[in-house]
Amino acid sequence: MDALIDVRSLCFRYDDGTVALDGVDFQLYPGETVAIFGANGSGKTTFVLHLNGLLMGGGAITICGNAVNKQNLSRVREKVGVVFQDSEMQLFMPTVLEDVAFGPLNLGLSREEASERALEALKQVGMSGCAARAPYHLSAGEKKRVAVAGILAMRPEILVLDEPTTFLDPPGQRSLIELFESLPQAKILVTHDVECARALAHRAVFFEKGRIRGEGSVEDIVARFNWDRTVIRRPTSSRH
Amino acid sequence: MHIPDGFLSTPVWATLDLAVVPAVGYFARRAQGLEQSKVPLLGVMGAFVFAAQMINFPVGVGTSGHLIGAALLAYTLGPAAASVVLTAILVVQALVFQDGGTLALGANVLNMAVIGLLAGYLPYQIWGGGRWRRPAIFLGAMLSVMVSALLALSELLVSGVAMPATALRVSIGLFMIYGLLEGAITVAVLGALESMNVGFLRVPEASVSHRFKWVGLAAILLATFGALIASAYPDGIQRLTSEIGIGSHGRLRISTPLANYEAAFFQSGWLRKAAAGVAGVVVIYGVCALGGRILGRQRGK
Amino acid sequence: MHHVVLDRWGCGLSPVHRRDPRAKMLAALIFLVALATSHQSYLAVSAVYFALLVTAIFAAGLPPAAVLRRAALVLPFSLVFAAMSVASGDTTRAISLVVKSYLSALVVLVLVSTTPLPQLLGGLERTAVPRFLLLVVQFLYRYLFVISEEAQHMRAAAAAKGGSMGRVISRRRHFGAAAGAVGVLFARSYARAEAIHLAMLARGFAGHFRPLAKSSFRKLDAAFLAGAVAAIVLLRAAIEAWT
Question: Both C75 and C48 in a single domain?
Fold first, then answer.
């Protein structure tokens, strides 16, 4: 089976000289969800920004058979939808409908097709009633759903979810995870939320200093890198 | 100082509304470049100026002031982008916050987002790159506030709004204080930005230097002389305005097309007045639309 | 916060709300011009125009007292200048300043509380106003509250810090702290703008915004405009012919 995403020895260095990615190899296959773990600043976000050409570094990336380069940008951005951590920054248009239709319009669809797709995507995330509302007045959970709809309206084959559960309360997180489970696309999940990864991901990779240090099942990676917030308390001996 | 509607006489607001159209068109085209990618930056920085005004700076004896922001924007975004941001701010203030009039929008934009801004950019343009950078920033920020306030004052006086001589001097003194405060705040904020070391400050643009220099200089001279004359001869100005009839109760004899239009307006019968009013609106719209079309075509190239 | 109230008022479904923004804008503009250019009998004209606006407020189902109070935001400024006019012996001018500035503010307020700002901007799109400027206004409005909230947090944080130190900080340091806060706010706003731009690019933005809504100027809108303009012009003309 051909990989949807095929990354070969990706390197990236910021203008100030910091090495952010240092030879990353990565594949994503149809239908699977891969969790990306790693400390803050380990290169996770830099990595996902490469997947739809928002950053371009050394090495080679192929998305559904298209090399990521300046000529292929629009095709690549159609295939890979990135849901950013902060929905506020992703919902920039005055109404929910206009925001969700933003991507389809950029794909060159007509107004009618674009709003049709937008309404369909809103229905898919359970936000049909909010089309005319202003994004500012939505709750955090609703904003996240609309942001996801904005991506789904472009009908991508791959979803990149950057910390999707932050800013949400536990029931909100749960219903969002259920939503993601219902979506057929292959997914990359960048997160610190191990519970969310356990629920969604088939496997996990671990980033450290711009490299992938480990790969395996979620449990495997969590155990190997001690990537859990559970505090292990030693039994304390009583004084008397 | 945001002039509300009802303060400026018709020739003044109408002329300034017309004058501002090409200026805003020019800056919008310059700031936009070939695509609209700068829209989020300019919009968010406009929101920043609003929000920054909530942060108080102590002035003394229990009072405080706040940033106005024209110079800060010009030094960080460049004069053209700053002008667009300031215009957007004035539009939102007029429509959403009832701060400044709608017919007077042309006057307010010209005072603050065009002439005040250019006057404020001038010192930075000349000395911003060298040893005198901080004084240049201070002076520029001060000028941006003073020039726009003095212009607003002159427009009010020309429109026949009467002010006692003492009140006039007091307001000019107040503008000076606001100017000094804006200078101090701008220097302090830019200092804070520099200590973050991210390179927000722009090196003065060399390519446009001469045109901007002359316009900026003209702006400062205009405002200074306007204010000097106004403060020296407040009664004189009133006499002058009532003689040439710019004041609302007189007849107009200034030879601008719009002034003639208003003169005709006064003498004609009511039906003709109504027709003239509608025609005036149509003419203004036509000129604006044509200007926009021409600018748009140039931009499209 | 101001514009939250406007957002709420703007959501109404009254016949006035449903009119095309261009019809309402043009009517308001003609109102403003007619008011600004009326001189000798402006008081009678203003009284009649006020009645027109009150009718519009009721027709739009807006809370009359709240709207009238909000338009009074302009009064402090007007009253200062009115006082100065009185001081220099021009009482007529003083009254005119207060009446005209208030009525002008009121008509704009009625316009924006029956037409949400994005719709107004959409209505302006086909006029001479540069689209770039309209987009900047749209983004400014969109992020106004977001950034203001951030500023409020920072002000609260600065106050908390000052309190925990348990002493009155000097004016100079207070000034420096405020400048630091504005600087941080600037940097954060800048970063937000970059994040927005990134999110736009990720969704295929190629340099130009494509509008979604196609506005339709219907017969009802034309009728509204004609009626409003007729009322504005004819009422004024009748008063001037009579006096």
Answer: yes
Q: How far is it, in rounded angstroms, from Cα C100 to Cα C23?
A: 23
Q: Tell me the nearest-neighbour CA distance from C53 into chain B, angstroms.
A: 16
Q: How many structural domains does chain A have?
A: 1
Nearest to B27 by CA among B59, B62, B74, B63: B74
Whether residue A232 lies inside any domain: the answer is no
Q: Are residues C173 and C195 in the same domain?
A: yes
In which domain, by residue range, is C144 found? 131-202
Same domain, C188 and C109: no
Are both C139 and C53 inside the same structural domain? no
Residues C102, C50 contacting (CB under 8 angstroms): no
Residue at token pair 């100065």: C84
Confidence of residue C169 (pLDDT cuts 50, 70, 90): low
> Tell me, what CATH number does A32's domain have?
3.40.50.300
The answer on C101 and C153 residing in a single domain is: no
User: What pLDDT digit, counting tens, does each position of B234-281 carry?
Assistant: 444 444 444 444 433 333 333 333 333 343 444 444 445 445 555 555
Residue B98: which of C71, C84, C187 has the nearest Cβ? C71
Number of A to C CB contacts under 8 A, please give it. Answer: 76
Q: How far is C71 from chain A (nearest CA, A)?
A: 25
A185 to chain C, closest Cα gap in Å: 17
Supply the DSSP symbol for B2: P
Residue matched to tokens 């970063």? C191
| Helical segments of chain A, H only | 44-51, 73-79, 87-90, 96-106, 111-124, 140-152, 170-182, 194-200, 218-224
C207 found inside a domain: no
pLDDT per position as a tens digit, A70-80: 999 989 999 99
> Could you list the residue range(s) of the whole structural domain that residue A11 is in?
5-224
Average pLDDT over residues C201-207: 91
CB C85 within 8 A of CB C96: no
Per the structure, the count of domains in chain C is 2
Mapping DSSP to helix (H, G, I), strand (E, B) and coil, where does residue A28 land?
strand
| CB nearest C133 (choices: B28, B60, B293) | B28
Listed by number, the residues of chain C in 135-194 with a beta carbon closer than 8 Å to a beta carbon of chain B are: 135-144, 146-148, 150-152, 154-155, 171, 174-176, 178-187, 189-190, 192-194
Q: How confident is residue B159, by pLDDT bands cut at 50, 70 and 90?
A: confident
Confirm whether A236 is domain-assigned.
no
C207 in B contact zone (CB under 8 Å): yes
Architecture of domain B10-233: Orthogonal Bundle (1.10)
**ipTM over the 0.90 cut-off:** yes
Subunit contact C237:B274, Cβ cutoff 8 A: yes
**Structural domain contains residue C210:** no
pLDDT tens per residue across span C3-46? 678 888 888 889 899 899 999 999 999 999 999 998 888 899 99
Quote the pLDDT of residue A237.
59
**From B47, B92, B277, residue closest to C189, measured CB to CB:** B47
Segments in chain A below pLDDT 50: none
The answer to the question of residue A239 being in a domain is no
C176 and C58 in a single domain? The answer is no
Spatial CA neighbour of C34 closest among B105, B201, B10:
B10
In 3D space, the residue among C106, C119, C132 whose CA is nearest the CA of residue C209 turns out to be C132
C18 and C79, same domain (yes or no): yes
Same domain? C84 vs C156: no
Q: Which residues contact C103 (CB under 8 A, 6 or more apart)?
A: B6, C35, C46, C49, C50, C53
Say if C208 falls within a structural domain: no
Decide if C139 and A92 are in contact by the 8 Å CB cutoff: yes
